[in-house]
Model the fold of this input.
Amino acid sequence: MKKLILPFFLLSMSLFIAACSSDEGSTEEKETNTEVTEENAKSDEMEMKSALLDLQKEIINTVNANDSAIYTFESAKAKEEDKPSAEEIAKLKTDAETAAKTVAEDVHGLEVPAALDSKKDDIQGALDDLAKSYETRAANLSDEANAEYTESDEQFASFEEKMAAIYEEAGLTKPSFSADIVD
Done:
């Protein structure tokens, strides 16, 4: 009988050790999976932040590429000395209208990067407000020296507010597009 107890005891211990070691492997796998998931989340977050900053630069460059004619028109009509002739003002106004329409078209042509797919609708809504701002400006250009473009300014402010919310949600400081878009 003693001869049977020892092999049975050894077999039981072997099974117990095997069971315990498989639990340890499972725990290690869970820890490894958790670490990989956390690293992937951090990587995705960094990719999103990078894509947002790249998009910001692209928006600013897109607008600045064509909006100078608008500011040239606005400053020319406000001049008290060496004021351009009515014909020159009319040409500057036509150029400004064309520039504003071009900016709007170019903004509509911007594509939201794949890294920002989770925010695509929000970003697209903000870009639509920016484009509308320039479309409204083109439609309402005034020859008055101190003309106000309230509707256009409100649309631009809406664009900035929507983008600020996206940046803050991503853990970034909200940008000031109005400061970066050259006057």
